[in-house]
Amino acid sequence: MSVLTSEAVVLRTWPLRESDLIVSFFTRDYGRLKGVAKAALKSRKRFGGALEPMTMARAWFAERPRQELVRLDQLEIVRSPLSAPVDQVRLAVLSFFAELIDEALPEHDPQETVFRLIVSVLEQTNPAQTSAAQSIANTEVSAEIGKPWMALSYFSLWMTRLMGLLPDVSRCTACGEPLRPTEISFSSYSDGLFCAVHRGSNSNMLSADSWQLAQRMLRAPVSAFAAEPWPRRRAQDLRRFAVQSLERHLERKLRTAEALNRLGG
């Protein structure tokens, strides 16, 4: 039984017995896995603080014959979410990342694009990444810019696309005609965006700013948006559109999305 190694993101942990844990983690090379970390609560040398959700680490593990769970031997921290202050909003966003990856991706299915996405948004979720923008004169906007609303918006939108739930956002899903910025809507029952003619009775409107932002986000890396002001309400409707699509596909409500709603996100 050979030991494998890969870059990984820790998603969740569950107690197993005494000091053992079951760990769900997403690897670059082998996809999402679950493993048993023996004596994880006692061994600081092998695991230390690497078991916190959304910790980037180098993982060493072994697949066991006829066993669903791998044997997780060691995690070596590459980047920890605890390296910067964790406020309530940042914690909720990190938890959302972890829950969506854990629920949406099948086990043992490498998805390099999703792994690169999560690495890039984690870099932008760190408040240190936005320090240059803190010089904005507007006090309210400046206070919000350190919060990870931008990373949340980008991640939600791109996960919707990578899961095949996002038709062309420049055209009406029903008729294929180009959308007009002031008449765009979305529904909790259907994928895509709709023109005024095909707007349903239970639809929500998507603002022109959010629509244009979505088109930009689908063409540019997340770092391209780091210096822009991101008050809490910016792209709020775009996040709602993405989350509704994701929850419809998963056929369940995301617990962390509800927490973010309570925080106004």
Describe this structure in words.
By secondary structure, the chain is of the alpha+beta class. It has two domains: 4-81, Nucleic acid-binding proteins (OB fold (Dihydrolipoamide Acetyltransferase, E2P)); 84-262, de novo design (two linked rop proteins) (Up-down Bundle). It is built from seven helices and eight strands, in the order βββββααααβββααα. It has helices spanning 88-104, 112-125, 139-145, 149-162, 208-217, 236-250, 255-262, and strands spanning 4-15, 21-27, 31-37, 56-62, 70-79, 185-187, 190-194, 204-205. The chain has a five-stranded mixed beta barrel. Strands 7-6-8 form a three-stranded antiparallel β-sheet, covered by helices on one side. Strand 4 and strand 5 form a beta hairpin. It is elongated, with a radius of gyration of 20 Å. The termini are far apart.
TL;DR?
By secondary structure, this protein is an alpha+beta fold. Helix content is 32%, strand content 20%. It has a five-stranded mixed beta barrel with strand order 1-2-3-5-4. Strands 7-6-8 form a three-stranded antiparallel β-sheet, with helices on one face.
